[in-house]
Amino acid sequence: MANKPQWDLIAEAFVNHYYSVFDTDRSQLATLYRDVSMLTFEGTACMGASAITQKLVSLPFQKVRHHVVTCDAQPVLPESLNGVLVFVNGDLTVDDGAQAIKFAQVFHLLPDRNSPGLFWVYNDLFRLNYG
Amino acid sequence: MANKPQWDLIAEAFVNHYYSVFDTDRSQLATLYRDVSMLTFEGTACMGASAITQKLVSLPFQKVRHHVVTCDAQPVLPESLNGVLVFVNGDLTVDDGAQAIKFAQVFHLLPDRNSPGLFWVYNDLFRLNYG
Fold first, then answer.
1. For residue range B16-58, what is the model confidence (pLDDT) as tens digits?
2. Which Gene3D superfamilies does the record match to this protein (chains A, B) (predicted)?
3. Checking CA distances to A69, which of A11, A107, B37, B113 falls within 20 to 30 Å?
């Protein structure tokens, strides 16, 4: 762990938190987005914490469980913004389905200037990968 | 087409060009990266046009063909940089293999200040998704 770049640690902590909230009560994800945040979910774009949360809450399943297989991260220009680009590949299961579905998701995280150590989502792009 | 945001058009043009070059002569991809560019390929990180091209050229196949299934794009902060975040999901076949392999790739593109309309790759993250 000691040799991991800081952005890898930020990405892993964020991703663990994000999917934990998603799989428990996804209405609570609103706090991780802002008015300028963007989500492109399976090709459908929406903007702002409220619209994004509404989109996520309206997805047609009751239970969901994300399993992260890989989580890659890189720093994003400009350095002054301290952004982190996160690329997740994993599996998800919905409503006790036996078959996991592969997904890939991209987050561009920016630090919360009022809460050191916390990050919010500026860009979010999600795709299912049917097998 | 007329209603597509500009970043979608930029993303599609870039992606078509990138994979066309990749599948024809991937040593020529060097022109699309710079010294500060980053590639994380299947979890292995390298930096700079030279190291990135060396990594791509050394991949253990002679022929490769990328087929783009989805290409999503969003603008990236700060607006002054005019960056574009691109998220590609697709299939690739290598060396006349009958079985296509799914892949997902993320590009963060920045405009070439000396060549209006051209973009270079700042961030590049690539993962295969075995079925």
1. 999 999 999 999 999 999 999 999 999 999 999 999 999 999 9
2. 3.10.450.50
3. B37
B94: contact with A, CB 8 A cutoff: no
Indicate the SS3 state at residue B28: helix
The DSSP-derived string for chain A is: -TTS-HHHHHHHHHHHHHHHHHHHHGGGGGGGEEEEEEEEETTEEEESHHHHHHHHHTSS-S-EEEEEEEEEEEEES-GGG-EEEEEEEEEEEETT-SS-EEEEEEEEEEE-TTSTT-EEEEEEEEEEE--
List the CATH code of the domain at B6-129. Answer: 3.10.450.50
Give residue-wise pLDDT tens across range A32-52.
999 999 999 999 999 999 999
Contact B108, A76 (CB under 8 A): yes
Domain boundaries, chain B: 6-129
Residues 6+ apart with CB under 8 A from A1: A9
Residue with structure tokens 């998701």? A105
Ramachandran bin of B58, using left for φ above 0, alpha for ψ from -120 to 50, beta for the remaining angles: alpha
Is A46 near chain B, with CB under 8 Å? Answer: no
Residues of A in contact with B122 (CB under 8 A): 76-77
Q: For B69-79, what is each residue's pLDDT tens digit?
A: 999 999 998 77
Q: Closest Cα of chain B to A28: distance in Å?
A: 24
Residues 6+ apart with CB under 8 A from B128: B42, B101, B102, B103
- Judged by CB atoms closer than 8 Å, whether chains meet at B106 and A87 is answered as yes
CA distance B85 to A40: 11
> Does B118 contact chain A (CB < 8 Å)?
no
